[in-house]
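Structure representation.

___
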Amino acid sequence: MSQGDARKALRLEQGKFYVGFVGRLEFQKGIDRLVSISRILYSKFGEGICIVIIGSGDIEVATGLRAVDLPANVRFIGPIPQARQYFAAFDIFALASRYEGFPYVYLEAMAAYLPIVTTRVPGAEELVSEEGIGIVVENTDEPLDFADAIQKLFENSELREEMRVRCKEAVAGYSASEMVERTLKVYASLGDGGTE
C-alpha cells in the first residue's frame, strides 16, 4: 500500500509528518510517554508532527486522559486488523516502552523501511543501534530526549533516507530462514561444548 493510500485509509491528512506507534495500549508500552512527547512537539511544530496510535486497549487508562483531552497532534486510531499494512502511512516509528522482551514490532517497522526512535529496551542496541536504523534514547519518563530524537529525524530527511536504506539492507538478515539458521548454529555450538 502506498503512503497516500495508507493515510487515506486511516483518515490522516496529507502533508504532515507522522510518527507511528502500533501495539497494546498498556502502561508497559509508554502511551502516556508518547502523549508527553507529543506536547513538546506540538509546542514547536503545532500539528506539523503528529503521533498516530494504533492498538487495542483503553486510551484513557493508558494515558490518564479522556480521549477528548489528548493533544491536538495525537491521532488515536484504535485497533485495526492487520495493522502492519498501514505502516506505510508513517514517516518514522516510535516505541517508548518501559520494558520489553525483544519487540517484534522493530522487525515490522524495519520491514516497512521506517526509521525507529525507541527507549533503551532489549533489542534496541542489538537491532536499532547496531544496524543504524534509528535512534535509541534513555528509558525514562522524561520526554525531552525522545522528542529531540523525533525532531532530529523530522528535520533531517537525508538521515531518514540513510536509515531507510539500512532497513532494506538489514531486513534480509531477519528473515525466518536466517533466524532459524542462527538458532541452529547456537544449538550446534551447545552440543560442541559452546564453541562455534
